[in-house]
Amino acid sequence: MSSAKAKSVARGRPRSAETEQAILHSAYRLMASEGLAAASIDAIARDGGVSRMTVYKWWPSREALLIDAFLRQAATMLPLPEAGDPLLRLRRHAVAYIRALNGDFGKVQLAVIAECVARTGSAKIFSERYLAIRRDAAVKIIRTGQKSGRITATEAAGDLYDRIYGTLFYQYVFGFRALSPGYAEKLVNAVLAGAPGETTSRSPG
Fold it and tell me: With helix as H, strand as E and coil as C, how does the chain read?
């Protein structure tokens, strides 16, 4: 490859990455500000200053694009640091999750899941492109805490994660209680460290 061509490719790569981020930003902004119906491929392309063809080069479907836009926002709003006290990291993450759910993030999450179910009959694509990634990261932190003794609960790390975030999401979706940072902290402490705190969520049955 000639040096001129190599420079051209090198210059093009950052623009591609920038375009991808612009599309993701537009997708999330439209969902948060105008609702799911407004976040069509045409609208996202217009808002991001790109063509429909460019969008479809990066994502196989609208659902995949919306999930990735949501994932980008989650990575910003709900970081999971790789270092630090495991219990403290999970407490902070649960508190951040509650604060996010109580804002536009919560509405967008429900809308994206609903879109996946409506289009495909299940939320599998949401799990594959978003939830499984985040769950694996948190489960790894729980296992680290169990090995160090900082987390005293002995159940499988995945089950512990599901008890925390399954409860928070269930309570949020069905509105059985107003979720607060304090509730999130108590829940994490009770599940992972055996500290006193309310942990019972209402069963749908």
Answer: CCHHHHHHHHHHHHHHHHHHHHHHHHHHHHHHHHCHHHCCHHHHHHHHCCCHHHHHHHCCCHHHHHHHHHHHHHHHHCCCCCCCCHHHHHHHHHHHHHHHHCCHHHHHHHHHHHHHHHHHCCCHHHHHHHHHHHHHHHHHHHHHHHHHCCCCCCCCHHHHHHHHHHHHHHHHHHCCCCCCHHHHHHHHHHHHHCCCCCCCCCCCC
pLDDT in tens, 110-143: 999 998 899 889 999 899 988 999 999 999 999 9
pTM for the full predicted model: 0.78
The model's pLDDT over 99-114, given as tens digits with 9 standing for 90+, comes to 999 999 999 999 999 9
What letter represents residue 4's amino acid?
Answer: A
Which residue bears the tokens 């599998």? 124
Q: Which residue has the tokens 């992972």?
A: 192
Do 52 and 41 meet the contact criterion of CB atoms below 8 Å apart?
Answer: yes
Closest C-alpha among 43, 50, 46, 63 to residue 18? 50
pLDDT-based confidence at residue 195 (cuts at 50, 70, 90): low
**In terms of Cα–Cα distance, which of 187, 137, 128, 172 is closest to 157?**
137
